Automatic annotation (TrEMBL):
Stated name of the protein: Cargo-transport protein YPP1
Keyword Cell membrane: no
Function as written in the Swiss-Prot or TrEMBL entry: Involved in endocytosis.
Membrane topology according to the record: Peripheral membrane protein
Coiled coil spans: none
Compartment(s): Cell membrane; Cytoplasmic granule
Keywords: Endocytosis
GO cellular component terms, semicolon-separated: plasma membrane
Feature: compositional bias, Polar residues: 684-697, 710-726, 783-795
């Protein structure tokens, strides 16, 4: 039974979390001594944050060279010291508790230390106080015990620093004595204790390394330290030294030596008989094992390469062994969940998490609602929700769950995981008076209000602090789950709108807590704002992000696309018509083109920003090359997407023919980014050409579908009217070929697709400059020749065959095929598709591309390609790439509703056509409920309007047309979703 009856108990909990009460400023007028001390502490932390570079131990002596600055800071500090003295005089005769005296002592000495007070006097003041309380001096209260832990470590740090100027040996001895007696590790919720513990470790490391003049060895240095026998202290300190910011303190062998030490220690613990499953009346075994686990895994969680220090398989074995020696240990189960996720054993982790929640509920009932270590609980919930979210666990149709059904996962999320996490976040908000949007306050309705207003003035921790990151991560995890629901689980428009509103709410809550510390949260919120049509707010947020994170290439991409969308919405600006990618009726999308000079001037912002982004990308690549550091695949892919956006911007400004001159730059950039040499011409030696794929199979289930092979034999003499081009079109294509020189274009690109990264770098072609109308294309001087036969040097698709890089190159070839298709260069388009099938296996993307290519010339083959893609989509689970699915579905709509004609129809009867159109209607309506992919796609609503017109539904026709016009008015040159597209 835990007794928590102090009037200040809530405030103590708040202080333990590194925060202050919301009404802390009112404590200045309080009659309670402890509340007055809290007010002084708050003012002290404000002063340190604003005047002392947020350094707890930076005294006024640091500023003595600047007299004006020194005097200003000293005056503010003296005001606080005098106020503190007056409070003590007012309460001199009152009886004070141990915690009040201890709190007052640390505040007094901290103030005097900053004021550069005589250290001898400070030592006397500190030494005169007995920091070990008597049994009757503290209450049986967890919060108060944790508060005393915080005061104790702060006391030792202050006392040690007082000795630094004249007795460094005794300074070290204070640290050693504290660490030798360190037996109770701090929980995750003891934020302020952990903060001062890190300060202690930093000071200790500075002394042991003689201010970075030597590096520590685990075997030669740590083993000889007085506290080495205390495993809690040794493990915690070793993990601290292995954090990225502290690696300069240790030598190269430290990690391996420590890993060996840890391996032996864990093995000994597993075989130890000193810990057995406790009896009903015993809890000491539970506590000792829990403390060891908490100390090891909590401190190890801050080490990026922790999996190489303690192998996941050994960790799993150890934690399972610990569960046999403890009773319903939440600490052990929580760390077991993390370990199982690291091992990819999602089924076991999911069931463990459900059990973990049961333990929490039972524990809270036994303790009358008391929640132990609430931050650890919130962290476990948010981690599990992020990893179990189907967006991650079912990504690319590869389920990480072997036996658990998706419906069960969704049901558990909705009824258990999300409500419980929200409940714990609400409890935390009550505990430290966290504030979010107020519905009655107009300013909070601004989507970016967190940039102009600090919601929680009682939280002085930085945005990179553990406390801030943990809470913002929890809100983001909830919003991210609603993002999944908006894409895959919206059953109607109302549910979709609710899901989108929850995304906005939870993402914003995340940023209210952490407005600058995490670029992922900022970018995702900006992307959602863009997708809901708040373009100007999204643009402002993108600019804010780029000021702090200029190397966020996804944000650069989104910024440029928003600018093109805003230009599209400007009545004074006209943009050249798009071709195959914008397949709306001419009457709906027709615009009057302005003079070229005006047109170029209006589009300067997108060009300017995309060029700036690519310049930064070039510097970014150079920096990593000079440091001999490999770029992540994600960064490379984001830079490549920037280049494709640049091509789209050039097309919108100068026309689709202009972009033809710069196709080679995309391939050159690919090989500058991806270190891969493709010596093979094929990854599949048995497939036939693009036009022949599937000709022996029947993919459509419709009775009117005629096998293309039979159709070809039956209608050899019958020319498809849709395949014949008008004379003007033929002349246009010839003029394009002549002006662009496409006769050898595909061959050139094919050679570029085989160039080695090494050869490219020899010519210093790190990143080609952004093209302009007056800038010639720079062709690479060294290329690797290849044969045109698709079956030369066949190789199998293995992990060593750079599968991801091949997928990306295939995507580039398919993008190039669409460029040729826009220009009416059908033959070159087909060659690109063939090359895409060659570089990587034929798939939905290539089938769809072939469907678009043959939509007019060979409609039955086109139908086959679209149908076979839909067949694959339907056979796989629903976690398909929604962009690819939409592209395929719209291709089928184009084939049925635009390219088909009565003289040579795909349909054998009117009933057959009606069935096909109703099928399309159902597919389109379902796709329109996938936000943002289908719902924000103007072509989806355009084709729906044509279908509604066909079935004579005037109400739906009107609404779909207005939706189409609304989206078309704000249409960017590429969809916003490509900014966050994962590697293919």
């Amino acid at each position: 039974m835990y007794i928590e009856n102090s009037i200040n108990d809530k405030y103590i909990k708040t202080l333990n979390l590194g925060c202050f009460p919301k009404n802390v400023l009112q404590f200045q007028d309080s009659q309670d001594y402890f509340q007055q001390l809290i007010f002084i502490d708050y003012q002290l932390q404000l002063l340190i944050s604003n005047e002392f570079k947020n350094d707890q131990l930076l005294s006024l002596a640091y500023f003595e060279n600047n007299t004006t600055l020194y005097q200003a800071k000293k005056e503010k500090l003296l005001q606080l010291i005098n106020y503190h003295n007056s409070i003590n005089l007012n309460y001199k005769s009152s009886i004070k508790s141990f915690k009040e005296n201890f709190y007052n002592l640390t505040l007094q000495c901290h103030l005097l230390y900053l004021n550069n007070h005589n250290v001898q006097d400070l030592i006397k003041i500190l030494s005169s106080f007995n920091i070990i309380p008597n049994d009757n001096e503290i209450e049986n209260n967890i919060s108060e015990f944790e508060f005393i832990q915080f005061l104790t470590i702060k006391y030792n740090v202050l006392l040690s620093n007082c000795y630094s100027s004249f007795n460094s040996n005794y300074q070290l001895q204070i640290y050693f004595d504290y660490l030798e007696k360190f037996q109770k590790p701090f929980s995750k919720s003891q934020i302020i204790s952990n903060f001062w513990f890190e300060i202690l470790f930093k000071n200790l490391s500075a002394h042991l390394t003689k201010k970075n003049t030597i590096q520590l060895s685990f075997d030669n240095h740590l083993r000889n330290l007085p506290f080495f026998k205390n495993k809690f202290a040794t493990i915690n300190y070793s993990n601290f030294l292995l954090r990225p910011e502290n690696l300069n303190f240790v030598n190269k062998s430290f990690k391996n030596d420590y890993s060996n030490y840890l391996l032996i220690d864990v093995e000994e613990n597993m075989h130890s008989k000193s810990f057995q499953f406790p009896n009903a009346s015993e809890s000491s075994s539970n506590n000792q094992i829990n403390d060891f686990i908490n100390n090891l895994y909590e401190s190890l969680s801050y080490v990026p390469f922790n999996l190489s220090i303690l192998k996941p398989q050994l960790s799993k074995k150890f934690l399972i062994d610990c569960t046999k020696k403890t009773f319903q240990s939440k600490i052990i189960l929580s760390n077991l969940i993390y370990t199982l996720i690291d091992l990819g054993e999602y089924d076991e982790a999911f069931q463990c998490f459900i059990t973990y929640i049961d333990y929490l509920v039972k524990g809270e009932k036994l303790k009358n609602g008391y929640i132990e270590d609430i931050l650890s609980i919130i962290d476990t919930f948010s981690t599990c929700i992020i990893y179990f979210n189907p967006l991650k666990s079912f990504k690319n149709n590869n389920s990480k769950f072997k036996n658990i059904d998706l419906n069960f996962i969704n049901d558990t999320f909705t009824k258990n995981f999300i409500p419980n996490l929200q409940r714990y976040l609400d409890e935390l908000s009550k505990l430290i008076d966290l504030t979010y949007d107020d519905e009655n306050y107009a300013g909070d309705k601004n989507p970016l209000s967190f940039l102009y207003k600090k919601y929680n003035l009682n939280i002085l921790q930085t945005d990179h602090s553990q406390f801030i990151e943990l809470i913002s991560k929890a809100w983001f995890s909830i919003g991210n789950y609603y993002y999944y629901l908006s894409i895959y689980e919206s059953i109607n428009l109302k549910s979709m709108e609710f899901n989108v509103s929850q995304i906005l709410l939870n993402y914003k809550n995340s940023l209210i807590i952490n407005s600058t510390g995490n670029v992922l949260y900022l970018f995702n919120y900006a992307l959602v704002l863009a997708n809901v049509g708040n373009l100007k707010f999204s643009l402002k947020l993108c600019k804010f992000i780029l000021k702090k994170y200029p190397e966020s290439f996804k944000t650069w991409n989104l910024l440029v696309l928003i600018l093109t969308s805003l230009n599209n919405d400007n009545n004074d600006t006209s943009i050249p018509l798009k071709f195959n990618d914008n397949i709306l009726d001419g009457q709906l999308s027709q615009q009057q083109s302005p003079p070229p000079q005006q047109q170029q001037q209006k589009m300067r912002d997108p060009e300017k920003f995309i060029n700036k982004a690519l310049n930064i990308a070039g510097l970014y690549i150079m920096k990593y090359i000079q440091k001999d550091i490999k770029l992540t695949l994600e960064s490379k892919y984001e830079i490549l997407q920037l280049k494709l956006t640049q091509m789209a911007v050039l097309e919108s400004v100068h026309g689709h023919q202009y972009m033809m001159d710069y196709l080679s730059e995309v391939f050159v950039l690919y090989h500058e980014l991806f270190d891969v040499q493709l010596n093979s011409n094929s990854t599949n030696i048995n497939h036939s050409s693009a036009r022949q794929f599937g000709s022996n199979d029947k993919w459509s289930h419709r009775p009117s579908f005629i096998d293309p092979k039979i159709q070809t034999n039956q209608q050899q003499s019958k020319k498809d009217p849709a395949s014949s081009q008008p004379i003007g079109d033929i002349d246009s294509v010839k003029s394009i070929k002549k002006s662009v020189g496409t006769g050898n274009t595909v061959d050139k690109l094919r050679r570029l697709s085989k160039i080695s990264r090494k050869d490219s770098f020899k010519k210093n072609e790190i990143l080609t400059p952004p093209p302009s109308a007056a800038q010639p294309v720079q062709q690479p001087k060294q290329t690797l020749s290849r044969k045109t036969s698709r079956q030369d040097n066949p190789i199998a698709t293995t992990a060593n065959n750079k599968t991801v890089e091949r997928k990306i190159l295939q995507e580039i070839w398919l993008w190039t095929s669409r460029v040729f298709l826009k220009n009416g260069l059908m033959e070159e388009c087909e060659q690109c598709i063939i090359e895409a099938e060659t570089i990587y296996e034929p798939n939905i993307k290539t089938f769809t591309s072939l469907g678009y290519l043959t939509s007019k010339s060979r409609k039955f083959l086109s139908l086959q390609e679209f149908e076979r893609s839909l067949e694959i989509f339907n056979k796989s689970n629903k976690f398909n790439n929604q962009f690819d699915y939409g592209l395929n579905l719209l291709g089928l709509c184009k084939l049925f509703l635009v390219d088909d004609n009565l003289s040579n129809s795909l349909f054998i009867s009117e009933k057959d056509m009606n069935c096909a159109i109703i099928r399309l209607k159902n597919l389109l309506e379902l796709y329109s409920l996938t936000w943002p992919f289908g719902y924000n796609n103007s072509e989806v609503w355009f084709y729906l309007s044509k279908i509604y017109e066909y079935i004579d539904d005037k109400i739906l026709l009107t609404s779909s047309l207005w939706k189409c016009i609304e989206l078309e008015d704000k249409r960017p040159v590429r969809q916003f979703e490509i900014c966050d597209s994962s590697i293919v």
